[in-house]
Specification:
By secondary structure, this protein is an alpha+beta fold. It has seven helices and eleven strands. α1 packs across α3 and α2 packs across α3.
């Protein structure tokens, strides 16, 4: 039994339903949530509104609550790969390789990977699609020692799965997130309107041994995503 607020417990339950449902699927009503969790209608509605604000579900007056048909949920800083994230939502991930090969390291990428800027590196830039809809542009920088990963199927396959086959499991990620207007190239690749917005996520991903795997910049079509984050008070030590 969760020791946190009941509405957060209900919100987590709804997220699990959304993760395995299809867009447009009906979700439990407020009354059904009240009965299942033994809470008031206000508590149930509070949980539903959390997911409504995250654009994960839609409330239709007189009809009910449904899985959102317009946005894909994405947890900020998650080490979960794009391919696995889409498959969990019943979508088919594919990629179009835009660039793959040697490239100089920036100071930030070198620092993130724990190598010298003079060391060789590989850049893999791909357009990521779900059910043939362009979702994001991803630019991954990896040390040249992992250049054999470019021999993998990176059109229908996953870079993270390739790492796992090599015995290195993407386990933890540090991320920085920002928002801006899309460039003309991004608008063309992602099929965005003239004033389309990009959400950028720069992540360093570490394996099970805390060794850096990749330094990745991903540029998401903001209108196709609902980003979520879990935040904690650092100075709170819990109930006494």
């Amino acid at each position: 039994m969760s020791s946190g607020p009941r509405y957060l417990e209900i919100a987590d339950y709804l997220r699990e339903l959304v993760a395995t449902a299809e867009p447009g699927d009906r979700l439990p009503s407020d009354a059904q949530l009240c009965k299942r969790f033994g809470v008031s209608r206000m508590t149930a509605r509070q949980a539903v509104m959390i997911l409504a604000n995250e654009r994960l579900l839609e409330r239709k007056r007189g009809s009910g609550t449904f899985v959102s048909s317009s946005r894909v949920p994405r947890a900020l800083g998650s080490p979960l790969s794009f391919s696995e994230s889409m498959r969990r939502r019943g979508m088919t991930p594919t990629s179009r390789v835009l660039r793959a090969g040697p490239a100089p390291l920036s100071a930030d990428a070198a620092r993130a990977l724990g190598v010298q800027p003079s060391e060789p590196a590989i850049v893999l830039e791909r357009l990521r699609l779900a059910d043939d809809t362009p979702m994001a542009i991803e630019r991954a920088v990896i040390p040249a020692t992992d250049s054999n990963l470019l021999d993998e199927d990176l059109t229908t396959g996953s870079l993270h799965a390739a790492f796992e086959r090599a015995g290195r499991i993407p386990t933890r990620a540090l991320a920085q997130v920002g928002a801006r207007r899309a460039t003309s190239r991004e608008r063309e690749l992602l099929d965005l309107p003239a004033h389309g917005i990009i959400l950028s996520e720069v992540r360093t991903i570490f394996d099970q041994y805390e060794a850096p795997l990749e330094h990745t910049s991903t540029f998401y079509a903001a209108e196709r995503y609902a980003f979520t984050a879990i935040l904690y008070r650092e100075d709170w030590e819990g109930p006494t």
